[in-house]
Design brief:
By secondary structure, this protein is an alpha/beta fold. It is 34% helix and 23% strand. The longest helix has 16 residues. The chain is globular and about 50 Å long. The structure holds alpha-D-ribofuranose (RIB).
């Protein structure tokens, strides 16, 4: 199945720090690096590395060659991407000594995605094909509307929350992939337990497949017929940036290939565990062959 990912592309400026700076405090960074990132780009690379046929669409500036080249090298189709007059989007990322991060994004060219461009891109796709969206580009509510109208399978990762989310008609989304904080906000609950969050989301969006990521507690899949948990694979955490995107890409590649949800979730969990052991977002996403080999090794060891 062809997948269209209409999403952000960022240059990630990554500083590793002992702790995050408080208001009024100046701290030195231990290291600095620039990587390709953006939730859209990361998810496209994860999809491609997992073996899916993925077309990325979105906007970059005239400084965006590195973003295009990195995606193309991973096997992502980039011909629908447009150059805008704005500089490419970027992110300032602080990674602390536990591998956790704080991220500030500047939209740049990602905010130049117009309804007319979305129409042009969607014209290349057919009913039944997949449209993947995150919340880092402009006109996401329009894209959801048009993707559904065209009969595409609409997948939404409402991350980061805020911006246009309130204007998105999530009843038109086939798959919602989100973390617990996002789940709570969309469900309109303060409940801590996953079951309540899932139930409230299901009441609001009865037709939507829900995939809730729970950090160190794993993830949960619920499609109205079955609900199950997927545990994490142990990993030494170096940098969690892009781990959620790796999970999303691997999960959707499995679904697009017709694999059972349990298998797609298991591979997604392993791929994201591998990614947290490495620095950067896009560079940390493992190749499909590596994930398959590691899965086979683990199954042999524990069975
Ligand atoms: O999900 C990680 C990504 O969030 C980073 O690559 C950064 O660009 C921000 O979009």
């Amino acid at each position: 199945m062809k997948i269209l990912n209409l999403g952000s592309m960022n240059i990630d400026r990554v500083y590793s720090v002992e702790h995050y700076a408080q208001a009024g405090e100046t701290i030195p960074a231990k290291t600095y690096g620039e990587f390709c990132g953006g939730k859209g780009l990361n998810q496209s690379i994860a999809l491609a590395r997992a073996g899916a046929e993925v077309f990325h669409a979105g906007c970059v500036g005239d400084d965006g060659d590195i973003l295009l080249d990195t995606m193309a090298a991973a096997g992502v189709r980039t011909e629908l991407i447009r150059e805008s007059g704005e500089p490419s989007g970027h992110a300032v990322i602080h990674v602390d000594h536990e591998g956790q991060n704080k991220i500030t994004i500047f939209g740049g060219a990602n905010s130049d995605v117009t309804p007319a461009y979305i129409d042009e891109v969607l014209a290349h796709f057919s009913p039944g094909e997949m449209l993947l969206l995150q919340n880092e580009i402009s006109n996401v509510p329009y894209a959801i509307e048009k993707g559904r109208e065209q009969g595409m399978k609409v997948v939404f990762n409402p991350s980061p929350m805020g911006g246009d989310i309130g204007r998105c008609d999530l009843r038109k989304v086939d798959y919602l992939i989100l973390n617990e904080v996002e789940g709570r906000q969309l469900a309109g609950t303060d409940a801590e337990d996953t079951q309540t969050i899932l139930e409230k989301l299901r009441q609001k969006y009865p037709q939507t497949v829900l995939v809730l990521t729970l950090g160190s507690r794993g993830s949960c899949y619920a499609d109205g017929k079955e609900t199950f948990y997927q545990g994490i694979f142990p990993a030494k955490t170096v940098d969690t940036t892009g781990a959620g995107d790796t999970f999303t890409g691997y999960f959707l590649a499995g679904i697009a290939a017709g694999r059972p949800p349990r298998e797609a979730m298991e591979y997604a969990a392993l791929a994201s565990a591998i990614s947290v052991g490495r620095h950067g977002a896009a560079p940390s996403i493992p190749d499909g062959s590596e994930v398959r080999l590691e899965m086979a090794r683990l199954k042999e060891e524990y069975m």
